[in-house]
């Protein structure tokens, strides 16, 4: 059973704080190992990548077979059932339609001093997408990472996906193909991140690396940050549902379990204005846990990190939700739009009872790569912005320089940066001649 | 003297590569020390901060004197010369006017399936701004960090600025006051970053930390990344000037020196279509280096990392510039706007000979916190976006769920995530009853 909290209980605040602070993830200290792997790949390139792939994935490759050929991709895609293809195509289309709207505008204007100012957005030239192998090899994540990159205008998009013992997920290759991925390499782990960041003879380096991975991948991304851009370091998944008593307990139970089944470290929380409804949801979860395929995982997550919090009002729910800053927030109340408008810190909001969070994982359109572990306080889900960068523009006319140059001279002097000041002075002297 | 390169030389490519790869910064390995400091501040809070401040800054503080009082701020501001105040006010006004235009739009629409989709931007609640003490304590940087935060809507903006041996820069306090900073603490180093990230009894934790600092500050920011958001890890400054022969060599020399004088690790590069002009600029630099106050620093930077590259055409200049991905790019050519449009990777572009880079450091309006060390390939300068985050929104109607729910069920099954699928199935069953 999960924890039951009630804001009217005397010990609510310490218990809620403990819930917020719960360390859900063991972070094994793999940093030294990863540093060694990265150095090895930097020094020996393909040879290191091939050896490490043999060691960790038990797959023997050559520089020629590191990359899936177009024939191999076509052969794998042919194994995908038409219904799966149709579902992935629908998802891709909806994700693309959503992300196209995110494209930011360039700007250019002349200000009252006559200075022309503005900015211009351009795409990253090359991006690498890490795709996990094995259990967590999700084709939906390929779409969610690759489509924003391609919408942004990234010309070269490379995927690395390990094939432990030679296992390939055809749906991952189909998703990559559908999303317009240009290169697919059968490597994984820190060695894949290192190869993408620094390049080898076979794999050209990229400018940005995104995508989820295990502790080795996360540590490697953290290490190459600066050499290349990275997306967030994702933690275990979370859902917060705010529900009144006028909901089907089983629906809410399934929504909670849809995060819990990801990972024993996942966290599912229900905040409700109706204590009896909270109990009914707990019972519905227990019933579902009798039969769910992933009941061992979902049950452990729910037992260790699940919580049902009873609040006196939706005002309290809003305040607690912003303290949690959930990755996924589902609002199942009478006026979910009004409640949504009051929420400040959340990765994604699912508005109303007809919007189960799982819709967002696949076909809603918004990205499912979202900030975890309270980082929605300061960061956003993946978007086209992750694959774009902005160049600021400034153009002075002689008049503009006359107007604002003297202030720059003054500030340069105050910061003891003489050449800064002189670069303005020399031009103003010409104008004043 | 700097290096002279010419694209027509046989050894150009290896020499240009060496220039790109030059390791300009010694990164002392302070990570272990910083880890210890962060743990100490997490465990002992104010007591650790006070001890470390006494040790590193030789200043004895108490929890009551950690923060500048409003009387102290007013007294420091009163020391600032009216001309400096006017210059900082002008800079603040122009920076504000530029950054207000960056505010992104919320969006909400209904798609053909009846799904309501959108996103909403909200500000980070609390941000911390690190300001270095001593030589690199620049009031302009206070404006460049604080104004975007306030324009974004950050309610609580805290600054930390060390006061080694008690030294305070009144202009920094005036800039902070002008920019609307809410709290100013006289601490620095890794201990300041730790206090901002984790909080102490006196300093409430923030959600995002920005601002430049030394190796200890950079290592601390890297370590607290995830617990809070951080901006980029800035490296030494850089400028690339692309100039034809129709320029005043002394102006270009001063522009090159305005970066070189920052730091011995700074890098100033001229690309020119006119080899004779390149030589004239080199001579003008030597002349200026005879008298510049910071000639020791500027001279070392120019000697060790400066370069003058002669190209056969502006096409070549564009290609080399994008490989450099400069922090600052100045275009002093006949049609600088046309050239600007062709540049893809640059932090900021200064268009035309009347736009010395120093204008952008102070009063242009765009931010002067810009990506260094070739990171303009994948990242942007500081902006209001650094203090905002986006929440995605999705709302299904029964009809929308009927239309796209089955694809979600199919994909959930393909990823063996049964509860995901059932959360959709349960709702579709109700609709189909």
Automatic annotation (TrEMBL), chains A, B:
One of its GO terms (biological process) is L-histidine biosynthetic process. InterPro entries: Ald_DH/histidinol_DH (IPR016161), Histidinol_DH_CS (IPR001692), Histidinol_DH_monofunct (IPR022695), Hstdl_DH (IPR012131). Zn(2+) binds at residues 259, 262, 361, 420. The active site is at residues 327-328. GO terms for cellular component: cytosol. Pathway: Amino-acid biosynthesis; L-histidine biosynthesis; L-histidine from 5-phospho-alpha-D-ribose 1-diphosphate: step 9/9. Keywords: Amino-acid biosynthesis, Histidine biosynthesis, Metal-binding, NAD, Oxidoreductase, Zinc. The keyword NAD applies. Its cofactor is Zn(2+). GO terms for molecular function: histidinol dehydrogenase activity; NAD binding; zinc ion binding. CDD domains: Histidinol_dh. Substrate binds at residues 237, 259, 262, 328, 361, 415, 420. NAD(+) binds at residues 130, 191, 214. Pfam families: Histidinol_dh (PF00815). Binds 1 zinc ion per subunit. Catalyzes the sequential NAD-dependent oxidations of L-histidinol to L-histidinaldehyde and then to L-histidine. PANTHER family: HISTIDINE BIOSYNTHESIS TRIFUNCTIONAL PROTEIN, HISTIDINOL DEHYDROGENASE HDH. Belongs to the histidinol dehydrogenase family. This is Histidinol dehydrogenase. It comes from Pseudaestuariivita atlantica. The lineage of its organism: Bacteria, Pseudomonadati, Pseudomonadota, Alphaproteobacteria, Rhodobacterales. The gene is hisD.
